[in-house]
# Entry
Amino acid sequence: MIVDTHIHLDNERYYEDLDEVINNAQQGGIERFIIPGADPKSLDLAVQISEKYEHIYFAVGVHPYDVNNFESLKFEEYILHEKCVAIGECGLDYFRLEGSDEDKQREKVRQKEVFVAQIDLAKKYKKPLIVHIRDASNDAKELLLSENAKEVGGVLHCFNADEQLLSLASQGFYFGIGGVVTFKNAKKLVNILPKIPQNKLLIETDGPYLTPAPFRGQRNESKYCINIVSKVAELLNTTTQEVSNFTTANALKLFRIR
Ligand SMILES: [Zn+2]
Ligand SMILES: [Zn+2]
# Structure
Protein backbone atom coordinates (compact mmCIF):
# COMPACT_ATOMS: atom_id res chain seq x y z
CA MET A 1 0.00 0.00 0.00
CA ILE A 2 1.08 3.60 -0.70
CA VAL A 3 -0.38 6.78 0.79
CA ASP A 4 -0.59 9.91 -1.35
CA THR A 5 -0.13 12.38 1.49
CA HIS A 6 -0.78 15.48 -0.60
CA ILE A 7 -3.22 15.59 -3.51
CA HIS A 8 -5.61 18.44 -4.34
CA LEU A 9 -8.57 16.25 -5.31
CA ASP A 10 -10.84 19.27 -4.86
CA ASN A 11 -9.11 20.97 -7.80
CA GLU A 12 -11.28 21.68 -10.83
CA ARG A 13 -9.02 19.54 -12.99
CA TYR A 14 -10.49 16.45 -11.32
CA TYR A 15 -14.17 17.47 -11.56
CA GLU A 16 -14.92 15.30 -14.55
CA ASP A 17 -13.29 11.99 -13.70
CA LEU A 18 -12.63 11.86 -9.97
CA ASP A 19 -13.98 8.30 -9.63
CA GLU A 20 -11.61 7.13 -12.31
CA VAL A 21 -8.66 8.94 -10.75
CA ILE A 22 -9.32 7.21 -7.43
CA ASN A 23 -9.91 3.81 -9.07
CA ASN A 24 -6.77 3.96 -11.16
CA ALA A 25 -4.74 4.90 -8.11
CA GLN A 26 -6.21 2.10 -6.00
CA GLN A 27 -5.54 -0.45 -8.70
CA GLY A 28 -1.92 0.64 -8.59
CA GLY A 29 -1.77 0.17 -4.81
CA ILE A 30 -2.22 3.81 -3.81
CA GLU A 31 -4.96 3.38 -1.25
CA ARG A 32 -5.04 6.37 1.09
CA PHE A 33 -5.28 10.04 0.13
CA ILE A 34 -4.99 13.32 1.98
CA ILE A 35 -6.44 16.50 0.50
CA PRO A 36 -4.61 19.51 1.94
CA GLY A 37 -6.60 22.65 2.56
CA ALA A 38 -5.32 25.47 0.40
CA ASP A 39 -8.13 27.61 -0.93
CA PRO A 40 -11.02 28.02 1.54
CA LYS A 41 -13.39 28.25 -1.44
CA SER A 42 -12.95 24.59 -2.33
CA LEU A 43 -12.77 23.27 1.22
CA ASP A 44 -16.40 22.21 1.32
CA LEU A 45 -15.79 20.12 -1.76
CA ALA A 46 -12.79 18.47 -0.06
CA VAL A 47 -15.04 17.61 2.89
CA GLN A 48 -17.69 16.14 0.56
CA ILE A 49 -15.08 14.01 -1.21
CA SER A 50 -13.77 12.73 2.12
CA GLU A 51 -17.31 11.81 3.15
CA LYS A 52 -17.95 9.97 -0.09
CA TYR A 53 -14.78 7.86 -0.13
CA GLU A 54 -13.75 5.81 2.86
CA HIS A 55 -10.00 6.26 2.48
CA ILE A 56 -9.82 9.94 1.64
CA TYR A 57 -9.05 12.49 4.36
CA PHE A 58 -8.69 16.25 4.35
CA ALA A 59 -6.82 19.02 6.13
CA VAL A 60 -8.02 22.52 6.86
CA GLY A 61 -5.71 25.44 6.25
CA VAL A 62 -4.84 28.56 4.34
CA HIS A 63 -2.01 28.58 1.83
CA PRO A 64 0.43 31.52 2.08
CA TYR A 65 -0.89 32.77 -1.28
CA ASP A 66 -4.34 32.96 0.23
CA VAL A 67 -3.72 34.73 3.54
CA ASN A 68 -6.45 37.28 2.92
CA ASN A 69 -9.03 34.54 3.27
CA PHE A 70 -7.78 33.52 6.70
CA GLU A 71 -10.16 35.52 8.90
CA SER A 72 -13.26 34.39 7.07
CA LEU A 73 -12.47 30.69 7.38
CA LYS A 74 -14.36 29.02 10.21
CA PHE A 75 -11.63 26.59 11.21
CA GLU A 76 -13.44 25.01 14.12
CA GLU A 77 -16.27 23.83 11.90
CA TYR A 78 -13.82 21.73 9.94
CA ILE A 79 -11.31 20.66 12.57
CA LEU A 80 -13.89 18.67 14.50
CA HIS A 81 -14.92 16.66 11.40
CA GLU A 82 -13.90 13.00 11.76
CA LYS A 83 -12.04 13.02 8.43
CA CYS A 84 -9.95 16.10 9.25
CA VAL A 85 -6.43 14.85 9.92
CA ALA A 86 -4.22 17.95 9.85
CA ILE A 87 -3.87 21.73 9.71
CA GLY A 88 -2.49 23.11 6.46
CA GLU A 89 -1.21 23.61 4.03
CA CYS A 90 0.13 26.65 5.77
CA GLY A 91 3.55 28.22 5.80
CA LEU A 92 5.63 30.85 4.06
CA ASP A 93 6.16 31.44 0.36
CA TYR A 94 8.30 34.42 -0.65
CA PHE A 95 8.66 33.29 -4.26
CA ARG A 96 5.95 35.48 -5.72
CA LEU A 97 6.20 38.62 -3.54
CA GLU A 98 5.39 41.72 -5.55
CA GLY A 99 5.62 45.50 -5.36
CA SER A 100 7.98 47.80 -3.48
CA ASP A 101 10.31 46.63 -0.72
CA GLU A 102 7.78 47.94 1.76
CA ASP A 103 4.98 45.97 0.14
CA LYS A 104 7.07 42.84 0.25
CA GLN A 105 7.92 43.41 3.88
CA ARG A 106 4.26 43.89 4.75
CA GLU A 107 3.34 40.71 2.90
CA LYS A 108 5.98 38.73 4.77
CA VAL A 109 4.70 39.96 8.12
CA ARG A 110 1.16 39.04 7.10
CA GLN A 111 2.21 35.53 6.01
CA LYS A 112 4.00 34.99 9.30
CA GLU A 113 0.96 36.08 11.34
CA VAL A 114 -1.29 33.68 9.50
CA PHE A 115 1.24 30.86 9.79
CA VAL A 116 1.61 31.37 13.55
CA ALA A 117 -2.17 31.46 13.97
CA GLN A 118 -2.40 28.08 12.22
CA ILE A 119 0.40 26.59 14.33
CA ASP A 120 -1.61 27.71 17.38
CA LEU A 121 -4.73 25.99 16.06
CA ALA A 122 -2.75 22.81 15.40
CA LYS A 123 -1.52 22.82 18.98
CA LYS A 124 -4.94 23.62 20.40
CA TYR A 125 -6.60 20.75 18.52
CA LYS A 126 -3.57 18.43 18.54
CA LYS A 127 -3.34 18.00 14.77
CA PRO A 128 -0.13 17.71 12.76
CA LEU A 129 0.83 20.52 10.36
CA ILE A 130 1.14 20.34 6.58
CA VAL A 131 3.77 22.99 5.95
CA HIS A 132 4.49 24.71 2.63
CA ILE A 133 7.86 26.50 2.44
CA ARG A 134 9.25 28.22 -0.64
CA ASP A 135 12.15 30.69 -0.61
CA ALA A 136 11.55 31.17 3.10
CA SER A 137 13.47 28.41 4.90
CA ASN A 138 15.07 30.66 7.52
CA ASP A 139 11.91 32.38 8.64
CA ALA A 140 9.83 29.21 8.51
CA LYS A 141 12.29 27.22 10.57
CA GLU A 142 12.59 30.01 13.11
CA LEU A 143 8.81 30.15 13.56
CA LEU A 144 8.39 26.38 13.84
CA LEU A 145 11.01 26.36 16.57
CA SER A 146 9.91 29.50 18.45
CA GLU A 147 6.24 28.46 18.34
CA ASN A 148 7.13 25.00 19.63
CA ALA A 149 5.49 23.25 16.69
CA LYS A 150 7.15 20.01 17.78
CA GLU A 151 4.20 19.56 20.13
CA VAL A 152 2.29 18.38 17.07
CA GLY A 153 4.91 17.84 14.35
CA GLY A 154 3.92 17.60 10.73
CA VAL A 155 5.25 17.38 7.21
CA LEU A 156 7.38 19.78 5.19
CA HIS A 157 5.46 19.06 2.03
CA CYS A 158 7.25 19.25 -1.33
CA PHE A 159 10.51 19.36 0.61
CA ASN A 160 12.71 22.03 -0.96
CA ALA A 161 15.95 20.13 -0.30
CA ASP A 162 17.29 22.85 1.97
CA GLU A 163 19.83 21.20 4.24
CA GLN A 164 19.14 23.55 7.16
CA LEU A 165 15.60 22.13 7.42
CA LEU A 166 16.84 18.58 8.02
CA SER A 167 17.25 19.21 11.75
CA LEU A 168 13.46 19.56 11.97
CA ALA A 169 13.36 15.76 11.78
CA SER A 170 14.19 15.75 15.48
CA GLN A 171 11.23 18.08 16.08
CA GLY A 172 8.67 15.60 14.78
CA PHE A 173 8.74 16.77 11.19
CA TYR A 174 8.50 14.54 8.12
CA PHE A 175 9.63 15.33 4.58
CA GLY A 176 7.23 15.02 1.65
CA ILE A 177 8.89 13.75 -1.53
CA GLY A 178 7.07 14.26 -4.82
CA GLY A 179 7.54 14.29 -8.58
CA VAL A 180 10.40 16.79 -8.39
CA VAL A 181 12.72 13.96 -7.36
CA THR A 182 12.30 12.47 -10.85
CA PHE A 183 13.24 15.70 -12.66
CA LYS A 184 16.58 15.88 -14.43
CA ASN A 185 17.48 19.11 -12.64
CA ALA A 186 16.67 17.80 -9.15
CA LYS A 187 20.31 17.33 -8.18
CA LYS A 188 19.92 19.02 -4.80
CA LEU A 189 17.03 16.83 -3.74
CA VAL A 190 18.67 13.69 -5.11
CA ASN A 191 21.78 14.40 -3.06
CA ILE A 192 20.01 15.21 0.16
CA LEU A 193 17.51 12.34 0.05
CA PRO A 194 19.77 9.73 1.71
CA LYS A 195 20.36 12.16 4.59
CA ILE A 196 16.68 12.19 5.54
CA PRO A 197 15.92 9.59 8.24
CA GLN A 198 13.82 6.82 6.65
CA ASN A 199 11.28 7.04 9.43
CA LYS A 200 10.64 10.62 8.34
CA LEU A 201 10.00 10.15 4.60
CA LEU A 202 6.56 10.55 3.00
CA ILE A 203 5.35 10.19 -0.59
CA GLU A 204 3.11 12.84 -2.17
CA THR A 205 2.07 13.84 -5.68
CA ASP A 206 0.82 17.42 -5.07
CA GLY A 207 -1.48 16.70 -8.01
CA PRO A 208 -2.62 18.21 -10.28
CA TYR A 209 0.80 19.91 -10.17
CA LEU A 210 4.40 18.64 -10.39
CA THR A 211 3.82 15.52 -12.49
CA PRO A 212 6.79 13.13 -12.30
CA ALA A 213 8.86 12.06 -15.29
CA PRO A 214 8.11 10.62 -17.81
CA PHE A 215 4.64 12.19 -17.67
CA ARG A 216 5.64 15.85 -17.27
CA GLY A 217 3.18 18.17 -18.99
CA GLN A 218 0.19 15.96 -18.18
CA ARG A 219 -2.12 16.37 -15.20
CA ASN A 220 -0.64 14.74 -12.11
CA GLU A 221 -2.59 11.97 -10.33
CA SER A 222 -2.10 9.70 -7.36
CA LYS A 223 -1.37 6.70 -9.60
CA TYR A 224 2.01 8.30 -10.35
CA CYS A 225 3.06 7.84 -6.72
CA ILE A 226 4.59 4.63 -8.00
CA ASN A 227 7.02 6.58 -10.19
CA ILE A 228 8.12 8.60 -7.18
CA VAL A 229 8.49 5.47 -5.06
CA SER A 230 10.62 3.80 -7.76
CA LYS A 231 12.93 6.79 -7.97
CA VAL A 232 13.30 6.99 -4.18
CA ALA A 233 14.06 3.25 -4.08
CA GLU A 234 16.72 3.67 -6.73
CA LEU A 235 18.35 6.55 -4.86
CA LEU A 236 18.30 4.71 -1.53
CA ASN A 237 19.49 1.47 -3.07
CA THR A 238 16.50 -0.49 -1.94
CA THR A 239 13.28 -1.96 -3.34
CA THR A 240 10.01 -0.23 -4.16
CA GLN A 241 8.32 -2.64 -1.74
CA GLU A 242 10.58 -1.47 1.06
CA VAL A 243 9.97 2.22 0.29
CA SER A 244 6.19 1.63 0.10
CA ASN A 245 6.32 -0.13 3.44
CA PHE A 246 8.17 2.47 5.44
CA THR A 247 6.63 5.57 3.85
CA THR A 248 3.15 4.13 4.42
CA ALA A 249 3.92 3.31 8.05
CA ASN A 250 5.17 6.88 8.45
CA ALA A 251 2.04 8.39 6.89
CA LEU A 252 -0.35 6.29 8.98
CA LYS A 253 1.53 7.26 12.11
CA LEU A 254 1.73 11.00 11.45
CA PHE A 255 -1.89 11.43 10.35
CA ARG A 256 -3.23 8.79 12.75
CA ILE A 257 -5.17 6.92 10.09
CA ARG A 258 -5.41 3.19 9.33
ZN1 LIG B 1 2.29 23.53 -1.37
ZN1 LIG C 1 -0.29 21.54 -2.38
